[in-house]
């Protein structure tokens, strides 16, 4: 007997685990180096990367963005603001409490999703536009979790 995992069963726990881990790491930083923890938000692993404050905002954004895309919904402007904050966090890194708040908002959002909220999106093509004109188009399999053929959008 084959057992299939739905998108919701796969993605929501994965995002929640990632966000809880990030929150826990921030908490450890505050406990272990209280005088320098805020300074970590401006740190970059390499010169061409965004600082940690940006990375945290992007993680919170992506965990929520995926659910809107998979439900075929527009991304709300309040969420787009989180991504914009991330792109400018090198200039305005914010605080650890603000970073934890963004993570908390994303966790609350994920907690509010129904058990099958993302499953219908399994057949939607998703295109991710990246800087420098790079884009990735992800197209679902032509079979659903119940192994029934699914027509793709261009097949009618």
Give the helix/strand layout.
Layout: H1 7-32, H2 52-70, H3 77-87, H4 96-111, E1 126-129, E2 135-138
Helix pairs in contact: 1-2, 1-4, 2-3, 2-4
Structure at a glance:
The protein is mainly alpha-helical. It has helices spanning 7-32, 52-70, 77-87, 96-111; strands at 126-129, 135-138. A two-stranded antiparallel sheet has the order 1-2.
Beta-strand proportion: 5-15%
Overall pLDDT confidence: 86
Number of strands: 2
SSE arrangement, N to C: HHHHEE
Question: Structural class from helices and strands?
Answer: mainly alpha
Rg value:
18 Å
Low-confidence stretches: 146-156
| Count of alpha and pi helical runs | 4
Spatial separation of the terminal alpha carbons? 31 Å
- Strand sequence of the main sheet, in spatial order? 1-2
Which shape, going by the Cα principal axes? globular
Q: The biggest beta sheet, please? A: 2 strands, antiparallel
Assign a percent range to the helix content. Answer: 40-55%
Structural commentary:
The chain is mainly alpha-helical. Helix content is 46%, strand content 5%. It contains four helices and two strands. A hairpin with a 5-residue loop joins β1 and β2. The longest helix has 26 residues, at 7-32.
């Amino acid at each position: 007997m084959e057992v299939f995992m739905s998108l919701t069963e796969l993605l929501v726990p994965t995002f929640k685990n990632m966000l809880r881990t990030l929150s826990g790491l921030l908490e450890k930083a505050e406990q272990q180096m209280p005088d320098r923890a805020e300074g970590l938000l401006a740190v970059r692993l390499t010169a061409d990367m965004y600082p940690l404050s940006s990375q945290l905002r992007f993680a919170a954004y992506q965990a929520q963005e995926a659910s809107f895309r998979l439900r075929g919904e527009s991304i709300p402007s309040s969420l787009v603001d989180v991504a914009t904050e991330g792109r400018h966090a090198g200039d305005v890194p914010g605080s650890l409490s603000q970073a934890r708040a963004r993570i908390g908002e994303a966790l609350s959002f994920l907690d509010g999703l129904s058990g099958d909220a993302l499953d219908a999106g399994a057949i939607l093509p998703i295109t991710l536009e990246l800087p420098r004109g790079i884009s990735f188009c992800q197209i679902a399999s032509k079979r659903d979790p119940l192994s029934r053929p699914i027509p793709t959008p261009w097949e009618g």
